[in-house]
Design brief:
The structure is a single chain. This protein is an all-alpha fold. Helices cover 84% and strands 0% of the residues. The radius of gyration is 13 Å and the shape is elongated.
């Protein structure tokens, strides 16, 4: 989990925002979904920052959301 969180740096954020800005013109619905995924991922990241232990369920959910966003980046 920590390894993935370190990838939530400005580079990841800027790439995601750029992909979303392109999606707005190509597929507004997908852009909206990706904004929601990014928002949830950032929320989860902030929530688990305060804890040293995270349930596996939360780690898997974080990873799933991260990979969903990465798929959008690869396809755009």
């Amino acid at each position: 989990l920590q390894s993935l969180k370190t990838q939530l740096n400005p580079h990841f954020l800027f790439n995601t925002l750029n992909a979303i800005s392109e999606l707005v013109y190509e597929n507004a619905e997908e852009a909206e979904k990706t904004i929601g995924k990014l928002s949830e991922l950032l929320r989860m990241s902030l929530k688990t920052e305060q804890s040293h232990e995270v349930p596996l369920r939360e780690e898997l959910e974080f990873t799933r959301r991260y990979l969903e966003i990465q798929q959008v980046l690869l396809l755009s």
